[in-house]
Amino acid sequence: FYLSDYIKEIKNVSGAIRIVNNDIYFENLTGENHKGIIKITSDTGSNINNFNVNIECSRIKVEVPEVELQTEADINGKLVGNYKRPVFKGVAFVSNANFTYPPLKPQKKSTYNPNAVYPVWDADVIIRENVRYRYPLVDIELDKGNKLHFYGDKFNIVVTGVLTTRNGKITYLSQKFDIDYADMSVNSAAGVP
């Protein structure tokens, strides 16, 4: 998979990687991104058949082209599985973001490659603050604490959750309307939305 689709830069990398009996141990491997830090550790060793990698990130810049999202995120999770099916389990707290779904800009053509490795996401995304959903006739700020769950790979992702807002505007028939409260159930497997 292409990490560069989501995180554009990691610099000033430090820490240690130890190899013992064909297992890899990450010992406080850190790097800088945007205003934050990415930290990788492991409780036990990892090998190609058994990943066990802890990932902690604070205030990193993340881009998700599938939803035209640029955000600052804190991430706490674990990479498990194996080289044929890596799984990221965890939670991401997002702040200072704008996103659009479905995307307005044409997306880079993705073609399924049966020989490629696509990570499986099993993660929650929780709204922390200042996260706006924008579409041509909609501009809303999502309530703090909203949560979406992502499960699946890039080509078979299911998103579920409930989004609420108490602040925003909708334009309809050339008129702008203030939003007092709105909620939306999300279940992409059922086509909502």
What topology emerges from the helices and strands here?
Elements: E1 11-20, E2 23-33, E3 36-41, E4 51-64, E5 69-82, E6 85-99, E7 120-135, E8 138-142, E9 147-152, E10 158-172, E11 175-178, E12 182-187
Describe this structure as you would to a colleague.
- This protein has 193 residues and is mainly β.
- It contains no helices and 12 strands.
- Strands 1, 2, 3, 4, 5, 6, 7, 8, 9, 10, 11 and 12 form a 12-stranded mixed sheet that branches.
- Strand 9 and strand 10 form a beta hairpin.
- It is elongated.
- The chain starts with 10 loop residues before the first strand and ends in a 6-residue tail after the last strand.
- The model has no long low-confidence stretch (mean pLDDT 87).
Short description:
Helix content is 0%, strand content 63%.
What is the oligomer described by this structure?
Answer: single chain
Principal-axis shape: elongated
What structural class do you assign from the helix and strand content?
mainly beta
How many E strands?
12
Keywords:
193 residues, mainly beta, elongated
